[in-house]
Sequence to fold (460 residues):
Amino acid sequence: MRAGVYLRQSRDTNGTGLAVARQREDCLKLCRERGWEHTEYVDNDISAYSGKRRPAYEQMLTDIEAGNLDAVVAWDLDRLHRRPVELEQFMELADRHRIALATFSGDTDLSTDNGRLFARIKGAVARAEGERKSARQKRAALQKAELGQPSGGPRAFGYERDGVTVRETEAEALRQAYASLLAGRSLVGLGRDLNAAGFLTARLGKPFNHSSVRAVLVNARNAGLRSYRGEIVGPAAWPAIVDEDSWRAAHALLTDSSRRTNRTTARIWLLGGLALCGVCDDGTQMKVTYRGERTRDGTLVRSYKCRKFTHLTREASWVDWRVSERVIARLSRDDARDLLIDEQLPDLGELRRESDTLRLRLEQLAENFADGTLTAAQLKAGTERLRSRLAEIDAKMVHIDRAPLLADLVAAKDVRAVWENLRLDRQRAIIDALYTVIVMKRPVGRGAPSLDSVRMEAKT
Fold:
């Protein structure tokens, strides 16, 4: 007889396959005793209770259906099935093809009522054992999470294999990645940065791409937080690599359903995928196209075109210039620092009042010193105290998403020079944070385009 020997181990944490080896030894002994030829079907580290696909088991069923097997051998019935629905399907198939079923603990004749009853009872017991085991494992995993302990598994980027010790070279790269992300760097750009520095993914040892960078940055363990099934359950036993505010800001950014993921024209040109069509006026984006006019040397003119219709095409270089000039002008104003304030803070009014009071007191100190009622030492001490408190107030008012994007520009003496030296992805992120750009039709005539033909609506 031709027998299919089915071998399965639910969990093989160390990858040794020892349980499968023990099953194989007993099952092959049974085949030799009966003089059966055998073909092995092995599903290692796959749980039958979980319902995941078992490729070897499915192949064995296919071979039974094709008439290539006369018997099935397993160490025990629960190695074959943990779910009653699978058992019923197997019994129906075995009955049609008159398949003998042998296990190390004894044969089961599926052609009789008693044999099928025994198999069903055995299957029900296995199902119950699987459910209890699953419940115990879940409860143990939750308890481990609540205690802040590592979950085990593959090494996380930034940490050693024990899950607790920080690998400082990777940790520093992570800190820089968070800072760059919040300052407008794209995931694709971050992947290039990590690869250029010689880093590989911790789990597979492969170069980074936008998906693997995202997976690393959304991981709560980087902020010293323990999660369970996607929910934060408390502080972790390991040290944080980045502060919680930075992680939460990055997490919010990367999980925002409205986040644009266009990785072609939107990452090549300043406004591709950002600017909107003013003719449609319904949120339709503009795309980049080279179809249209040529310069005197024959070079195609790059243009922004409505993504849906042919009713609007504008030369990209002029639109880019117009938007850049508006951004530079806004960031050069005396009130540019107001852009760093989070208008949604519940206690913003109180913080602003205290900030104004502190600034007034600073002015009064300067006036008192000028009048001679304060000494230089008193002025210095008072100024340092007030400025320290003012810095605390400003830090509380800061917009966690905008501050990394705009802080150096707001403080720059030459905003234009800083802007022109920024990477494209950061320029795009700044524009997207400050304005909704709407491209209108070019006025008729040969004169210079009207500045109003690119509408820029400030975002609150």
